[in-house]
Amino acid sequence: MRDLVDIGMGRTARRTFELDDISIVPSRRTRSSKDVSTAWQIDAYRFSSPILSHPTDALVSPETAIELGRLGALGVLNGEGLWARHSDVADKLAALADIAENDPDPRVAVRYLQQLHAAPLNPELLGEAVAQVRDAGVTTSVRVSPQNAQQLTPALLAAGVELLVVHGTIISAEHVSADDSESRAPLNLKTFIADLDVPVIAGGVHDHRTALHLMRTGAAGVIVGYGSAAGATSTNEVLGIGVAMATAIADAAAARREYLDETGGRYVHVIADGDIHTSGDLAKTIACGADAAVLGTPFAAACNAPGRGWYWSAAAAHPSTPRGALLEIEAGEDRPSLDKILNGPSDDPYGELNIVGALRRSMAKAGYSDLKEFQKVGLNVRA
Questions:
Q1: Whose CA is closest to 274, among 48, 68, 24, 20?
Q2: Cα 214 to the center of its chain, rounded Å
Q3: What is the C-alpha separation between 61 and 81, in angstroms, rounded?
Q4: Contact of 351 with 344, CB cutoff 8 Å
Q5: What are phi and psi of 39, to 5 degrees?
Q6: Peptide bond before residue 120 is cis, with ω within 30 degrees of 0
């Protein structure tokens, strides 16, 4: 039964919970972490850890996508980012980091980011970036927005993309518009997905009903959340739209069960994206029912992150309504490698290194041997 509270006369709201509001309850059984698997598979693609990168230029270049793939995670290129618009991306990002570091007004860096994204999309440049990842032998994944999916997908398919991510801050299965001046017809996800030979991950969604609708489009995975990170994203401040991640994940997992029964066995993966900054956040995300999670700020600390220690979401470059500033990630002088962030060893007591190892240990302490089992672990709500 939903917990509704009165917020005024004749107006109620649902009480929801963030990841910080809950904790995992160990069972009577424990096991060795060596006997635990964190492997995750979507369609034909299997990964040793249930982790995707947020599709932002701050984190993912062709080189870091390759490195993440070799480490067992999935690096998702931003198909509408700088690698699809400029040939000298490293120089552009160096200039952006210099502005963010030296100008106290955060709007200056956002304006420069908007300027960089004002350059036209170049499918040839994007194809070269995708081909570089493909030729390295790791799974190739690219994010496109619903607005540009039909325009960019042919070039991505020609370049060898294997997993397509149709991702926006907020997405629905059907876009309704009364504006006859729109340059492109609204994307119908169901027909779009049906015409493709590659699996599609779509999102973000925030509630049970929309998650179920997206599952019915034929998506292989549904992203829950909008990549929130305190100080870096401000969808709540700009649009007044927010989502409590623990509740949103549990609602989407319920939609997954409903769709599984509805179709007689078609399983759609739930992928959480938002407020996941530590290994404990990752463990609670899986415990709430997610199959995998999107990480943003943890990867920004890496020594080879393209953002040079700065993090921003893909929505930060919106030309008229940017949702997010550049966030400096504190990592000390010696920034860790992606391998250390994922697999350790760690000397960090706050869960920002050895993220996969800590997830494995959490699962072992609770007595579960794989991710599907761990979704059944007990949870507490903090008073």
A1: 20
A2: 16
A3: 10
A4: no
A5: -65, 150
A6: no
* Global confidence as pTM: 0.92
What are the Cα distances from residue 192, in Å, to 175, 197, 318? 13, 11, 24
Across the range 353-373, mean pLDDT stands at 96
CB 273 within 8 A of CB 224: yes
**Cβ(199)–Cβ(179) below 8 Å:** no
* Predicted pLDDT at 200: 97
What is the Cα Rg of the chain in Å?
A: 20
What the chain holds in terms of domains, given with CATH numbers, is 4-381 (3.20.20.70)
Q: What pLDDT digit, counting tens, does each position of 276-308 carry?
A: 999 999 999 999 999 999 999 999 999 999 999
End-to-end Cα separation, the chain, in angstroms:
19
